[in-house]
Amino acid sequence: MKIKVEIDCTPQEARSFFGLPDLEPLNEAMTAKLQERMEAAAGMVDPETLMRAWMPGGAGYDQMRNVFMSAMSKATGRGSSKSEPDDE
Q1: Which of 42, 52, 72, 77 is deepest in the core (most CB within 10 A)?
Q2: Any long-range contacts for 63-70 (C-beta under 8 Å, 24+ apart)?
Q3: Distance between CA 30 and CA 24 in Å, rounded?
Q4: Longest C-alpha distance within the chain, in Å?
Q5: From residue 82, how far is each of 77, 79, 86 by CA, in Å?
Q6: Among 51, 84, 80, 85, CA closest to 68
Q7: What pLDDT digit, counting tens, does each position of 62-79 carry?
Q8: E strand or H helix at 39, and its extent?
Q9: Nearest-CA neighbor of 15 among 27, 3, 29?
Q10: Cβ distance 52 to 45 under 8 Å?
Q11: What is the pLDDT of residues 32-68, one digit of tens each?
């Protein structure tokens, strides 16, 4: 024997029917607080500040630039050491 029950209600109505708490005010408060924090953090998106945060010991932008330049020169050195065929 099969019994099929179909209930047509909104999620809010289902939560109140099962006795679950209304978390909408809490959600709105947390969303507002999160938005305030994100706006405050957006002001700290200065490249120098980011490098200080990402590099250990506050090494900063110069060290990161040196790492990139070293990698680029190695890649370029490998590319230029290959001999190119002459079209003559």
Answers
A1: 52
A2: none
A3: 10
A4: 88
A5: 9, 6, 13
A6: 51
A7: 777 788 888 888 888 754
A8: helix 24-42
A9: 27
A10: no
A11: 999 999 888 877 677 777 777 776 665 566 777 788 8
